[in-house]
Amino acid sequence: MKDNLLDIENVTVKYKVKNGNLFFNRYNDFKAIDRVSFTLAPSETLGLVGESGCGKSSLARAIVKLVRLESGKVTWLGKDWTLSQKNEDSQFKENIQLVFQDPLASLNPRMTVSEIISEPLENYRRELTSLQKKELVKQAMETVGLSSSMINRYPHEFSGGQCQRIGIARAIILKPKLIICDEPVSALDVSIQAQVINLLKDLQRRFNIALLFISHDLSVVKHISDRVMVLYLGRVMEIASVNDLFSNPTHPYSKALLSAIPIPDPISERQRKRDNLVGDAPSPIFPPSGCVFRTRCRNSTNICSIKEPEEKKIKLGHRVACHHVSY
Amino acid sequence: MEFFKIFSQSSERNSKSLNSFKDVEERSLWSTAIQRLILNRAAFVSALLIIFLAFICFVGPYFLSWSYDEIDWDLIEATPPNINNGHYLGTDSLGRDLLARILQGGQVSFQVGLLATMVAVIIGVTVGSLAGFLGGWIDQVLMRIVDILYVIPLMFFIIILMVIFGRNFYLMFIAIGFVEWLTMSRIVRGQTMALRHREFIDSARVSGSSNTRIILKHIIPNILGVVIVYVTLTIPQVILLESFLSFLGLGVQPPMTSWGALISEGAREMEITPRTLIVPALFLSTALFSFNFLGDGLRDALDPRDR
Lengths: 327, 307
What we know:
Chain A is α/β, with parallel strands linked by helices.
């Protein structure tokens, strides 16, 4: 366990939803993330997939402490950081950086690129002179494929892909050990997506960065990840290596997800068998009893509504939370 | 030799700029803003006008042969302008030199307009951004204080201040500033709350920025546009409020005067001598126009997006 970069154990994130009338405030709790556990090894890529609202972003935000953990434990390099003190925090925080979904919205419109990228330096490398900082910023810009002559421009002067590169430059400038990518390419068009994904892969190889890659695009996840975790309503459905999951999906939800990947060939696209899910995901405020997926699962039986399935290990590094999966 | 040196330097610079034609030199928010303000003709002319008006108001009285409180006993009624006796804009109904009074009134109006607004901006932006950004009970406490202060009638508040601290010229700035910050803090709070959940604030936090840094570097530059527009609306309001207070005897006292007080005096005599109304009104409206144009220009200049 000590070699792991990040250990997440039973992490739960709760939000409050106002559900009152004019005179009374009533709040409903809902668990965006419910007892999620996983580990991340150095320079490994974990893909995180699931449909909208299943808690992918909440998990990312919980890890970097943008959202308070309700319970659970986050262990970084063998040390518990859940209740850490402020001054210890910096070692943890400067090693985990986040790349955001919307490239332009994650950059302050009133700051130049140089100010944006050097912001982590201003907070964690105060001892550097402004000249050294500028040099580091230029290096980071060259690394992500931006011309360093654009250093004094403002974010709105860049295209979406370039903005995402700025975001990546800001994330790598402290040489972190883990970058969490919160749907970094979903706002970009396909040709730019490929560039950004390859850039991330390339950076990972060069600097030995671990990636937690969140996406709803399975083909992207397949391309970049070593392991994949499937989330549904804030719970882990299946976690497996890329090959295991894509060749042998075990959980009914994973099967349905994989069958929804479009095939870029009209003939085989028309012929293939789809495993369509019926309806929408139930409200996370009032999740179904037992297995949360049972309302849309074709295999569901009595036990599914009574008992919550535990994660079963069907293979080394392949865990599934389903009653109907046998070893 | 010297010539060649310069020549080679400039050619070097030329080739450099050709190589990296996208190169943009380093610029801070304010230095670009000033550059762009100069390019905005209306704003630039307004800025010059304000500087000019302020200059003649503060320096002009030293060059006049009459002071603002001196009565020319020979011309005890309002007399028309005359270059020979030194009353370049004539006298008012008490025989005092109108130009000298306008300049002295300008001093008061400028001071009130700028200082009181500054007090309002400083308190309003601080309270508003803290309440909006931190939220929770801090927001509740600060906004309830604002609510309570809103309820207190302005006159009542100022009279109480005068009773406690005695009549003081500078007390008026504080009193007016203290009233004007309420609306400012509400506006800033609303803007801050809208910004608080933007992604770049989250990204600043992941980059390790403290709350103070986020407010100073991310929130305030982004609400500056709204603040400046509100400032340009507040300055005229404050100048008029001051004339109202002076009219009630709570502001500046005769023989001192202000533009607002001059106008209300002039309005009483406008059927007989419209000059005593029109001339100070011209000064005041020129200044207010200029402040509005300058504020508009500043807001545009500070927004890097519409360059």
